């Protein structure tokens, strides 16, 4: 089998195509979530905490000298990213929770278990007749 035919067999497998579609949709969904968090969730939270932005917090390891910029340990950017992640994760959690609740409402009640088949009924009758004869 040539390398081209092997690649073709790999590339057109259902799993690879499904994965590609999932990645593309996931990237688009990521933009939606980022917009939701940045444009809908963060403004009220910013108002509640007084517009605190940690991204400017840093420790100067080496001061600027002439054209050489200062060396900073920007722990504030890390903290801001961490808080953003927690907010995004919580927003996604709440969205998934709402979707799961809707799915549960849509699910029909499980069907009643099926009664015994004709063969099972006949075997039950034979069993009952044999028990009656033994008495």
TrEMBL record:
This is Large-conductance mechanosensitive channel. The chain crosses the membrane at residues 16-37, 78-96. It is a multi-pass membrane protein. It comes from the Bacteria. InterPro entries: Mechanosensitive_channel_CS, MS_channel, MSC/AndL, MscL_channel. GO terms for molecular function: mechanosensitive monoatomic ion channel activity. One of its GO terms (cellular component) is plasma membrane. Keywords: Cell inner membrane, Cell membrane, Ion channel, Ion transport, Membrane, Transmembrane, Transmembrane helix, Transport. Pfam families: MscL (PF01741). The keyword Transport applies. SUPFAM superfamilies: Gated mechanosensitive channel. Channel that opens in response to stretch forces in the membrane lipid bilayer. May participate in the regulation of osmotic pressure changes within the cell.
């Amino acid at each position: 089998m040539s390398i081209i035919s092997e690649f073709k067999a790999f590339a057109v497998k259902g799993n690879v195509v499904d994965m590609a579609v999932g990645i593309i949709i996931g990237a688009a969904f990521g933009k939606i979530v980022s917009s939701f968090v940045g444009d809908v969730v963060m403004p009220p939270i910013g108002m509640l905490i007084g517009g605190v932005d940690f991204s400017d917090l840093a420790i100067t390891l080496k001061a600027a000298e002439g054209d050489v910029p200062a060396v900073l340990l920007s722990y504030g950017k890390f903290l801001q990213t961490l808080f953003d992640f927690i907010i995004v994760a919580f927003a996604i959690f709440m969205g998934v929770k709402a979707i799961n609740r809707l799915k549960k409402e849509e699910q029909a009640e499980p069907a009643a278990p099926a009664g015994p088949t004709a063969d099972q009924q006949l075997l039950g009758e034979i069993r009952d007749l044999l028990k009656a004869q033994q008495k």
